[in-house]
Amino acid sequence: MKIAIVSDTHDNMANFQKAIDFLNTEKIEVMLHCGDICNQQTIDEATKNFKGEIYWVRGNGDHDLDLIPGKMEIELGGKKMAWVHYPEIAKKLAESGTYDAVFYGHTHRPWEETIGKCRLVNPGELAGQRYKPCFALYDTVADKLELKILETL
Asked: Residue 47 is part of which domain span?
């Protein structure tokens, strides 16, 4: 199963829509968003346009999105995963030994490391504020992670 991991959209709906169009074309059915969505309109548009299921967590820029949890976990394709916005919390989750993969945002910088048996991943940012807009695809069966840079799609 392939899933998308995105973060830090910061209301850049044009970039988010480009990623969504790619994910729909690739028939990706699940998206995990690691926070800093920034407003309900972005959630509504993404939910309307993405053909799969989106799971959201709240980031520091999501002041008016109180109903979104700060942490989520899911098991998909035989992998137990968690995602949050903050790297410090993500690292503690990875160190717990409970998860196969933990995803986070906040720094806007794409990053991957292994802690024990857990993959700790920041998919980068879709907003394009500090780095090139990007997101990650994770193939749970092949245990393969791929960074997708928006301008190359």
From this structure: 2-152
